[in-house]
Records
---
Amino acid sequence: MIYTLTLNPALDRTLVVRKLVEEDTVRIISESRYAGGKGIDVSRVIRELKAQSIALGLIGGYSGLELEGRLINDGVMIDFVHLSEETRTNVILKEEETGKQFVISAPGPNVKPHEIGELYRQFRSLTDVTYMIMSGSLPKGVSKDIYGQLILTFKDKKPFIVLDADGDTLKRSLAFKPNMIKPNVFELSRLVGKEVKNEEEILKAATELNWQGIEIVLVSRGKDGLILCTKEVKLKAIGPKVEVKSAVGAGDSVVAGFVLAHSRGESLEECLRLGCACGTATVTTPGTELCHYETVMEILPEVEISTI
């Protein structure tokens, strides 16, 4: 079974207005609400691709209950630890006239030690995990060593572990050898301590990580596509040109497509192809809406895969 973990989920509200006008009433044209957070996005995309995962994480309050209900209605399997404090709400504000988008992200709840302990016990009790995708920022009260600690709970089970994090949280987790990481170019630069700009620099940085024990480094580069690096294989994926409406969730969609194909035993080339198709399809949807199955299938044969 594929599991995803989101330690700091959010209820995402996307508001569309004609234009922001200072000190005047601004009318909302449309509003949509989604269960958000990187691991939750992965689970939503896997479900959209007609497969299944189980979403784990920390939720609380009325916002948490709404998030939970929305995932249930979407057919996503869930098993959350409940907190005493409220799940955060993020606001995505889009101007219709200019196309500008503003993302206002809340910090999240303050997690209590006993709630972290409950999550830890839940992880130790998992018996059917074959893939674990850990992704996203940490709420207050959670140590930056949390991903490493949770990876240790699987020392006898050996699932395929994907880590999609940033900064010190990612750095401090590498010693525990996740099978795969998926930084974007900026996250990769922060991880290696120097700016990486071109393909050659990305490959060099990713290969160094491979030799440190990270089996797969998958780097997302926006419109420039994806670069996948293992010790033996270097691949590049480029999707077709599309109208970009929102890049929110594109990286998570890449992870979902890649992991789903990998779980089916497909080649790295085909895993990369589905990941790229999912990421490309997601940018064609507004706000925090993610990819649609039909769009992914249309884009899939148009993805170009090449060896670097």
---
Amino acid sequence: MKHLIIENDNLAAMESLLPEYEGKIDVMPIDPPYNTAISHIGYQDSGYEGGWTAFMKPRLELAYRLLSDRGVMFIHIDECEFFNLWRLCSEIFGENNLISMIWKKTNPYFDASRKEKPLESGIRRTHEFIAVCFKDRENTALFPVMQPYLHNNELTERLQPLETVVDFMGTTASAKEELADILGEKNAFATPKPVKLIKEFIRSIGKRDATIMDFFAGSGTTAHATLALNREDGGTRRFILITNNESNICRRVTVPRVRNAMKRYEIPEDQTELRLLP
């Protein structure tokens, strides 16, 4: 089956996918808006009718229906909406099906070119949260991942379980360098996540034929990570990306990145279907 990129409102897109994909998605790594009223990032981050929670609730309810019985969501968020997200996910998934993780989004090893922003209240933000939501945590075990670590000032990897503090899997700055490498433009997207981070979340599911959905697809990191992992272990994982047309993100960033990644991994372009807004 082909990879799929859908340019549409994610609520409408997920509703349209229910007849075919309900209960069939294995992993959902998503990076939703943080509701921090940042104006320069090129997509709506705040000001939702009825509030951020009202915006997220129907999307997470649909995500729950699309997840398989042993499916897992990894939701990135910062401190602004972490507690609202946690309450919402507790309501939908059940409190016993949640785990919180912390991603260290800065690291000197990756951030030589990082430009420091003015501090807010004298506090530097170096971490973000990840809410891990299981459909059925009691019967779902995550597999070990390839965890990088420093040895003699060199980065190496070893197979080990995911830890609640995620480090050495890339940073915001290194994710922008990856965009520059694949698109030739470092600032094509303001808030990308690193390929390594998403790749290990996908690996943790333990299925080489997994179906992966990202309904806040942004710059397309999830697709890039899926293709990279398939190339690494011979897997046949398939991605479904959903993004809207704000700032022409889908056609300006997401699709070109996916196409360039497919060329890099020598994957025929006809293996991906693009569905545009009606």
